[in-house]
Design the sequence.
């Protein structure tokens, strides 16, 4: 692993060990449409995570019925569990480098044919042609080599399989990221800048997230976690507002 990936790996291992609350199921920034249509129907137990779930609904724009789905960088498992319970795949597998996070997923998340395993996004522990769909939400900025990760996605996808991706980048790295997606060997079907929708979700969900930070973390950790979660007033939130950081999503297809 490179230095970047090693640093993030250590951070998420410690975080998963220190904050064991089962209700913390998502770590993404969320998505709130600027022109919302009918609200997404959710079970009462999922309502608190609406904005984080809406990001998955935006990113994974396909029928998953009867398909084998892999989420790379599954974190605390909320996304994989949501896709498993709501979208009708045959199986859903979550993989993450942080063993403590995977243990939390295995302990707390439920869904039909849902499983979790430890693994490196740049050396996925699966045979060639294993999945119909690969999902990667707000994780690839932690990897030491995005092209190596994309090569692994192409390897484990079956012919005609779909890859759904979303993540943030400094504005100066956006074109390089787009070039990496185009050079992956997968066809880019759609790509969007959804920075405005992500900022809107951060703003609408800020009170809930701030309350959780105050309840679950020691006071000394609050400023650093505000930056991590891009809470309003933090430097990371301002970077999104000023578009110095951009949030992208994309859908690709294997040949």
Sequence:
């Amino acid at each position: 692993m490179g230095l970047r990936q090693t640093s993030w790996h250590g951070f998420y291992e410690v975080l998963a060990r220190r904050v064991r609350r089962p209700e913390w199921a998502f770590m993404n920034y969320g998505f709130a449409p600027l022109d919302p249509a009918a609200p997404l129907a959710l079970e009462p137990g999922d309502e608190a995570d609406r904005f984080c779930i809406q990001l998955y609904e935006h990113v994974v724009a396909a029928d998953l019925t009867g398909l084998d789905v892999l989420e790379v960088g599954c974190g605390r498992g909320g996304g994989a569990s949501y896709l498993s319970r709501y979208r009708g795949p045959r199986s859903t597998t979550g993989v993450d480098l942080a063993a403590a996070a995977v243990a939390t997923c295995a302990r707390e998340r439920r869904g039909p044919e849902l499983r979790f395993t430890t693994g490196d996004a740049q050396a996925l522990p699966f045979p060639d042609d294993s999945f119909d769909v690969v999902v990667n939400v707000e994780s690839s900025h932690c990897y030491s080599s995005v092209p190596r990760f994309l090569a692994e996605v192409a390897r484990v996808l079956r012919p005609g399989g779909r890859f759904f991706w979303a993540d943030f980048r400094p504005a100066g790295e956006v074109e390089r990221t787009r070039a990496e997606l185009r050079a992956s060997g997968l066809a880019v079907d759609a790509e969007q800048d959804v920075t405005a929708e992500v900022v809107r979700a951060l703003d609408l969900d800020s009170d809930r997230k701030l309350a959780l930070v105050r309840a679950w973390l020691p006071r000394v950790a609050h400023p650093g976690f505000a930056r991590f979660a891009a809470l309003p007033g933090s430097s990371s939130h301002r970077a999104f507002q000023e578009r110095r950081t951009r949030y992208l999503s994309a859908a690709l297809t294997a040949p």
About this structure: The chain has a mean pLDDT of 93. The domain at 43-194+245-254 is CATH 3.40.50.150 (Rossmann fold).
